[in-house]
Specification:
The structure holds two protein chains of two kinds. By secondary structure, chain A is of the alpha/beta class. Chain A has eight helices and nine strands. Chain A has one domain: 2-enoyl-CoA Hydratase, Chain A, domain 1, CATH 3.90.226.10. In chain A, strands 1, 3, 4, 5, 6, 7, 8 and 9 form an eight-stranded mixed β-sheet that branches. Chain A starts with 5 loop residues before the first helix and ends in a 6-residue tail after the last helix. Chain B is α/β, with parallel strands linked by helices. In chain B, a hairpin with a 2-residue loop joins β2 and β3. The chains are: A alpha/beta, B alpha/beta. β2 of chain A pairs antiparallel with β9 of chain B.
Chain lengths: 250, 284
């Protein structure tokens, strides 16, 4: 883009960004429909919005605009349905909404879907794709790490099966809370998974990171995920896991 | 007395980071008798950025876990400036589980710029270590009090903060990220940290107002760090803090375990600011 003026570059990158987001939106709107048994998926807790707890400048306006563009209240979709005939509760973080970041609305929806799974006695699947805690909600966001981790721990101690699926990217406060607490942890090929962002680590150590650092394959090699699963294999693998656990909690 | 003008948040940040601020070792000596330091994560490493052990708080055996910062460069290199790797959080978890086994209450002392953002930390699973420490703490069957004494930055601070009571020293700060990191992420300019700290609501007074912490522990005007050299003032202040902690531990120890755990769960479960909007496509 060297021939363009700065303004033109910004416009172009904004346009690319918007198109990219539209693709992501299309993907996430059909994601659950493709994953669950046909017609079985039902949305739960669709309208949970953040209330701008620290009155961060411009945040309300930004949320309003994103809600209009994406048609969802925040960076998460939750619900329940059947996979291979087995009812599960699930939620997916949405990258197209402020990088899937976790503020109070995401944290509350995650906690509610965990409690829904506990009450319905179903397995729980959380699909993470997030830059981490949402800066614009300050400590209210950080506290969602404790809230969701506590909810997961309670669910697991009650005997529930929790499958965590890590998609690109899963970093910061999401990877350091519910995403890394799965009884079984799956990751999509090439997904960036880590606590600190690559740029922050490079600044700390003063050198470039080797290629493949913090990718799903790296996490598998270091013992932090159980399996790498391609998108098209996700449904059969989840079916298998659910089938193998079907005697435990039904 | 004349009402003081509100101090800018960034001055709190600077006080919280002051090298004379009481470090975890100063507080342990000031608060506990007969302290026995314990080491290691039992999985291959001793992380010096986390200190832990057992001691007597006003006669009550307690487990203490805290971030260790130094004063000199040598001390800080040895404890990695108070930035734990996964091994530090696994050591913390080991000592908390041990406390649970022996029915000992836990006190955590929080003072960290954050978990260490390095390669080795990522290779050894810093995310998983923080998550596991929080999850296990949320269900630990003994009373837990967390006290933020200096800077409490990000997940590395909260990892030791899932407690029945969350207290802060008056000039301590507790934030989603350092103000430099916050400014860097939102505005791509770490130099705007002072401006960021004004927006972040990270001082003890602001967090108390937001009901995210339970109690603010008063300090001498301008901060306890200016009294570290004055042993009389520091000793008196530690005596006051010791009494407050011991009273609270005795109170919490009287609550049946199931009730205590339910209260701890609800304490974090109830942190929300969301509302229910309408007109969303449910996709059904």
């Amino acid at each position: 883009m060297s021939g363009f003026s700065d303004r033109r570059k910004t416009m172009l990158s904004f346009k690319l960004h918007r198109e990219h987001n539209r693709d992501l939106q299309k993907q996430s709107s059909t994601f659950f429909q493709d994953l669950f048994d046909p017609g079985s998926f039902r949305t739960a807790f669709p309208g949970i919005e953040s209330d701008d707890p620290i009155h961060f400048p411009g945040y309300r306006r930004k949320l309003k605009e994103l809600r209009r563009v994406t048609g969802t209240a925040d960076a998460i979709q939750a619900g329940y349905g059947k996979i291979g005939g087995i009812t599960v509760c699930a939620a997916m973080l949405k990258r197209e909404f402020m990088m899937g970041s976790m503020g109070t609305a995401v944290g509350e929806t995650v906690a509610r879907v965990i409690e829904l799974a506990a009450n319905k006695h179903t397995p729980l699947i959380l699909f993470s794709a997030s830059g981490g805690a949402r800066m614009q909600e300050g400590m209210f966001s950080l506290m969602q790490m404790a809230k969701t981790s506590a909810a997961i721990e309670r669910f697991k101690r009650g005997g529930g099966l929790y499958i965590s699926v890590l998609m690109h990217p899963t970093t910061g406060g999401v990877s350091a809370s519910f995403a890394m607490l799965g009884d079984i942890i799956l990751a999509e090929p090439g997904a960036l998974i880590g606590f600190a962002g690559p740029r922050v680590i490079e600044q700390t150590i003063g050198e470039q990171l080797p290629s493949g650092f913090q990718r799903a394959e790296f996490q598998l090699a270091h013992g932090f995920v159980d399996r790498i699963v391609e998108r098209k294999e996700l449904r059969p693998v989840l079916r298998q896991i659910l089938r193998l656990h079907s005697s435990t909690w039904v | 007395m004349k009402k003081q003008k509100k101090m800018p948040a960034f001055e709190h940040v600077q006080i919280a980071r002051d090298r004379n601020r009481p470090k975890v070792t100063d507080l342990i000596s000031g608060l506990l008798d007969d302290f026995l330091e314990l080491s290691g994560d039992r999985a291959g490493k001793e992380d010096r950025s986390v200190i832990g052990g057992v001691g007597l708080l006003d006669g009550i055996p307690v487990t203490v876990v805290g971030h260790r910062k130094g004063r000199t460069v040598e001390e800080n290199v040895a404890c990695n400036f108070g930035m734990p790797g996964p091994e530090g959080f696994r050591k913390s978890l080991r000592l908390m589980k041990q406390a649970e086994k022996f029915g000992r209450p836990v006190i955590t002392l929080i003072d960290t710029p954050g978990a260490y953002p390095g390669m080795e930390a990522e290779e050894n699973g810093i995310s998983a270590a923080i998550a596991e420490n929080m999850a296990q703490m949320s269900a630990l069957g003994v009373p837990v009090i967390a006290l933020i004494t200096g800077e409490g930055s990000s997940g590395g601070a909260l990892a030791l903060g899932v407690a029945d009571r969350l207290w802060m020293l008056e000039y301590a700060v507790f934030s989603i990220l350092s103000p430099e990191g916050f400014a860097s992420i939102l505005w791509k300019d770490a130099a705007r940290s002072s401006e960021a700290s004004e927006l972040m609501r990270m001082t003890a007074a602001e967090l108390y107002e937001d009901r995210l912490i339970d109690r603010v522990i008063p300090e001498p005007e301008g901060g306890i760090q200016s009294s570290t050299g004055d042993s009389h003032v520091f000793t008196d202040w530690c005596g006051f803090l010791k009494t407050a902690l011991a009273e609270e531990i005795r109170k919490l120890s009287g609550i049946p375990k199931e009730e205590l755990l339910e209260m701890r769960y609800q304490k974090f479960r109830s942190i929300r600011s969301e509302r229910t909007g309408n007109n969303y496509d449910t996709g059904n």
